[in-house]
Each structure stands twice: as structure tokens, then as C-alpha cells.
Amino acid sequence: QVSEQLNNCKLQWNSGGGSCLYKAAAQHVTICGLENSKVSHTELRKLAHQKLIEWWDKFSSFYDWPVDVSIGTGDDARIEVFQDATEYKEFLLSGNSMNAWSDSEVELWVLSYIMNTTICVLAYNLPEGQGY
Fold first, then answer.
1. Is residue 69 classed as helix, strand or coil in its secondary structure?
2. How far apart are CA 87 and CA 73, in angstroms?
3. What is the end-to-end Cα distance of the chain in Å, rounded?
4. Cα(124)–Cα(127) distance, rounded to whole angstroms?
5. What's the distance, CA 34 to chain centroid?
């Protein structure tokens, strides 16, 4: 039913387990031939973070400081608080940013600009034990 309402959109499943936005995007790049070689979700996320910093003037107004960022899952989960843009941009260039939860539309917009496409996100949770 949903696909009938989203003309010219393609439903894509991914493995989940974290980084689902970037996994779906990397899958899209590979499947749709937007890239000659396979791109990993980590490479795509690093590029998105670099571009966010490069285009900071376009997105800075969407942040209210301090910013709380959830990093990791399970026993390794923690929240880091960034007091200002300088701290946050340093974080975006660090390896820790690869394990952060995307909790704003800004990363989605940046990814959309990089890929030169519209991204529609439909998210839901399946009842336990009914996943793929």
C-alpha cells in the first residue's frame, strides 16, 4: 500500500543493527549504479560528516547548544554533550561519530544533497521474533 503512494520510489530493506540510514544509502548507491564501485556505509557516513562541516553555514541554525549525542548500543551506550559547534565538528571527524545515532534531519539532508536525490524514510519496528 505504501509503495502505491510513493510514486517513483523503491522500497529497500537492509540488515538493520545500527547505521541503518547509511546502510540503506550505500545499498542504493551500489544497486542503482550511482557509483562504479561498491561504497561502504562507513565511507558514506564519513563523507556526509565532512560535507556537513564544509556546508556548516547552511545547517548551523538547526542546532541548539549544548547538543546531546547518543553513541553506541547496549552496555557500550553513552551520551556525549557538545557545548558548541567547534566541539561537535571535531567529534564529526572522529571515529566515535561512526557509532552515533542520527537524531536529526540534518544528516538526512546532507546525505540527500550528496546523493542528489530525495530520500523518504519510513521506519517501523516488527514485533520481536518476526524480523528477517
1. strand
2. 22
3. 20
4. 10
5. 18
